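Quick one from the shared queue. A colleague (R.T.) flagged Phosphate-specific transport system accessory protein PhoU as missing a structural entry in our internal table.

Convert sequence to structure tokens.
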Amino acid sequence: MPIRVQFEEDLQSIKDQIKQLSLDVKESLDTAIYVLYQGDVDKAKQIMEDDVLIDGQEGQINEEAILTIAKQQPVATDLRRLIVAIKISSDLERMADHSKNIAKATIHLGSNHGIKINPNLRDMAVLAMDMVDLAIKAFDHEDISLAQKLAAMDDDIDELYGKSVRELLEVTAINPEQIQHIMQMAYTARYIERFADHITNIGESVFYLVKGKTYDLNK
């Protein structure tokens, strides 16, 4: 098989795996938020166990990218495509870690906790999942105009995060006996905010891929 054809096949295989990893990571956040609201400790434990599978997916992508670099010795944009694939898989794996942390918060709260979960957390998660879709589309099409939109969406999540913390502090003032529960919600808001930061990193990776230079989308 011609070298160029083999490279294109290897690259497509890696991109397909990144798309699947992004879907699994998005599902991990969706499920983590659902079980938080439901107080489903058993499902929360399952999310933590499934994180091992996501770690394995990241490892597989990295191995294939490194092997392709070694075999094909790509240069310029082709080399950046593989480097960016490794960076994106790392960001996705770390995003799943934040879903795992949210599952831990559910376990701390306990089964059928009966606590009113701040509605902003669900809004943040929905926006973060939309960001995942947009980021992977930007990566797939190498489209910096799509990647640029991630900055504004991340600002919206930061705003929701600030609003959530303020509201939780107000609840703490009225119900100091619930401080431990409220802290778990504040932690969860922080985990989603950090989840979104990693998506912005993916947008910056797309800029690096297309432009060959690093960009800070949070400027």
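The chain has a mean pLDDT of 95.
The two ends are 45 Å apart (CA to CA).
Added to the table.
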